[in-house]
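User: For a teaching handout, I'd like to show students what a predicted protein-ligand complex looks like in token form. I'll give you the sequence and the SMILES for flavin mononucleotide. Please answer with just the structure.
Assistant: Understood, here is the input followed by the structure.
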Amino acid sequence: MTRLDPPRPAPAGGAEIFGVRFQNPVLLAAGTCGFGRELTGVLDLEALGGLVTKSVTLEPRAGNPAPRVAEFDAGMVNSIGLANPGLAVARDEKLPWLAHHVVRPRVFVSVAGHTVDEYVALVEGLHEAPGFTGFELNLSCPNDQRLGGRAFSLDREALEAVIRRCRAVTDRPLLAKLAPNDPDLADTARAAAGAGADGLTLINTLPGRLLAPATGRPRIGAGQGGVSGPALRPVGVQAVHAVSRAVDVPVVGVGGILRAEHALEYLRAGAVLVQVGTASFAAPRAAAGIIRGLDRRRDLPPPWGPGPRTAEGSSPGAAGSHTVSSSPLETA
Ligand SMILES: Cc1cc2nc3c(=O)[nH]c(=O)nc-3n(C[C@H](O)[C@H](O)[C@H](O)COP(=O)(O)O)c2cc1C
């Protein structure tokens, strides 16, 4: 296993999480920023803590029928169907672009398979590519090896097998992104960490459906989709609260973050990093505003500041974990 990631300047300040220095805690979420290039001229990518690419599959995928997104009063429902250019284009075009154009932010490549072998092939196929720090395993895809096509993270055996086998083929940081509709989320999180995940990303979208009241027809082409945006925030904060107390690996919070205060809610609940998704659709520079808003605060919880992690003042396992080291949030 060789590591070909080109040496990158370590940003001053910031915090070290899973062995990697982040200049601030705000990343763009998978599937909402393409491969970064799509945001050129819209957002200063260099100001970000990081970004997660859209999920890459082995083969290119055209995605689901339009319309793929529909808004409602508390967010949106999407069913993109993992539209992406596939492993070869990601490796040969998308990541080399990132290697040259994104220096300080930490890039994570999201990968999505339909079988355990597909996840392993994706990680093996991308491991030596330039331009990224680690992987985020999108474990909320249907698993078509088993009855019902349940998400990998809802199938304990499959979840552990994916993480264990991916762990064996890469030494890059490995995040496992879990589904929120999991009655045993803390147990699942423990299993993911036990199988070798360096961190956990919580949460992916919740299953949802929007109907046109007049006709009863679904408002997105695929019928069912994933709920994101403000409606998801209390679900995500609860997931982070529960999981960060159950595991000693860092937790990344995502779901419904529109403003700095929302990011702070996640940090107080136990997240050490946050991701911004749906907010970027309405306001493409939302993440930059969130970074500035956090930067102005002097009461951020560890590892970004000295403040309390929760209203109760208790610290979850991740904050004291050896995988996180403290230093103040870098001032821009
Ligand atoms: C249009 C759209 C596409 C998405 N695509 C992906 C994806 O490819 N992989 C993934 O893991 N999550 C994907 N997500 C989920 C987001 O990364 C995030 O977990 C979720 O939307 C909750 O965050 P938010 O409320 O800030 O959007 C997508 C979300 C949206 C809205």
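For the handout, you might add this sentence: Residues 29-32, 54-55, 69, 78, 80, 82, 110, 138, 177, 204-205, 228-229, 232, 254-257, 276-279 surround flavin mononucleotide (CB under 6 Å).
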